């Protein structure tokens, strides 16, 4: 080993040039990840802000006991061009209770799955059609605290029939924001229809629905504008995510090519020494060890760092993307850690293979030709 | 004693060139043998085949009865390290190593400690009168000094056989003469067997045997 390290020490400066592209590669990966997360954070903050400041307000303010029907809701949706809001009134029924108010409830079991178990400010996930989750904003709107609402009973009125429901959990605000911001219904009951973001209309009892709709026209325009902004931001984010993903892929490819080139470079650059060592009776294993230490370890470290960061980037992208596709975060998070490990491990294995190829090349070195080549 | 029997070697990478054609020869221990021939006549290839650097396509090379090409790579490496020293036309001194480190290389390959190798290399450099240049790099040395350092490196491990491939090829006449004299001294004073390839007829003076190569074949002069 003394001999190996003696040679290594001497060669380090000459071969240091290969560490530069590796360092640059890693730096680019770090920057890419940093940019991505900064971007994601800023988008998240922007959409949070947009949602908190504007959209949330418009989701919780209308109620109609007698007047609101699916037809009227559709009329309102038409008025506001609400098809882009994905309003789903067909699933709307009426809930009576909760401090005397009567509110429309929307079956959105898909939303519940998306929200997962971590979204509750109080209580937990409703487990049957007799239980419901309500939003914080609704509870605050009713002048209650989340803890107080849990366990309250209310009546769901549907198709002329009614049934009693219990509030099992109160959804926090946080999960209804950020990149995954969706306009959730204020009352969510398992066993409902499709997963849709719903504008919940709530009217005061005996309200003049025409006047309420008219009053909303002006605000609705702002709302639609904000919602379109949100949609635009999401679309832009999707595009940027795709670009970042492509950059990550190109980076990974360049890294693999760079690692191979580095291995070849050091092999050729040191060919005189390899030849001399073999000429003077050096064993293949000695030179293999030196070439491995010289080229493989820095490349390996760089690859591990680069690919690890790339994997993190991929995982970051994936979790955001999967969430947008409606895959529960719990599922994504369960798979992202092994994915990072597997990706980084695969990268390390590939790089190690490259180093082994270098050692193999040395083993097959034609000293006679190599000496002439080195001239 | 080195005995070569029917050595054939063909370069196959591009056009097939048969560089050595069925060469047989016998080199007595402690002798000085010169191999002369025109450029491209196969003399360097023959030297590499004889010294265990280039495996011939057919034939055998025996050192005191042992066929070196029947050895495993590890055994052949150990054999070369213990028994063979090399001197090349272009010196082949590692430019990143100073003179001392270049001379130490065969000893380090032998697993000698760096400290011991340094002491022995310095002693060898002293024999050749270039110990004052021990910490200089090859680029800072003259051709003659580089070749003397290369010879020092060839004998530092006390090998029995010295293979010199056109050792005067890159030197002026005076330095070339000095190098040939040094090689003769290795034979005369240290009992080494020296096999020298050259294209310069004058260098063969004083050789115990002179072989001439032509088109891959060899004949005794």
Describe this structure in words.
- The complex is a heterodimer of chains A (375) and B (221).
- Chain A has eleven helices and seven strands.
- Chain A is α+β, with helices and mostly antiparallel strands and 375 residues long.
- In chain A, strands 1, 2, 3, 4, 5, 6 and 7 form a seven-stranded mixed β-sheet that branches.
- In chain A, a hairpin with a 3-residue loop joins strand 1 and strand 2.
- In chain A, helix 1 (2-15) packs across helix 9.
- Chain A starts with a helix and ends with a helix.
- With 221 residues, chain B is α/β, with parallel strands linked by helices.
- Chain B has a single domain, classed as P-loop containing nucleotide triphosphate hydrolases (Rossmann fold, 3-Layer(aba) Sandwich).
- Helices cover 34% and strands 28% of the residues of chain B.
- Chain B has helices at residues 43-50, 73-83, 99-109, 114-127, 143-155, 173-190, and strands at 2-11, 17-27, 32-37, 58-63, 66-67, 84-88, 161-165, 193-198, 209-214, 217-220.
- Chain B has a six-stranded mixed β-sheet, with helices on both faces.
- In chain B, helix 3 crosses helix 4.
- The longest helix of chain B is centred in the C-terminal third of the chain and has 18 residues, at 173-190.
- The two termini of chain B are 20 Å apart.
- The model of chain B has no long low-confidence stretch (mean pLDDT 91).
- Chains A and B meet through helix 1, helix 8 and helix 11 of A and helix 2, strand 6 and helix 3 of B.
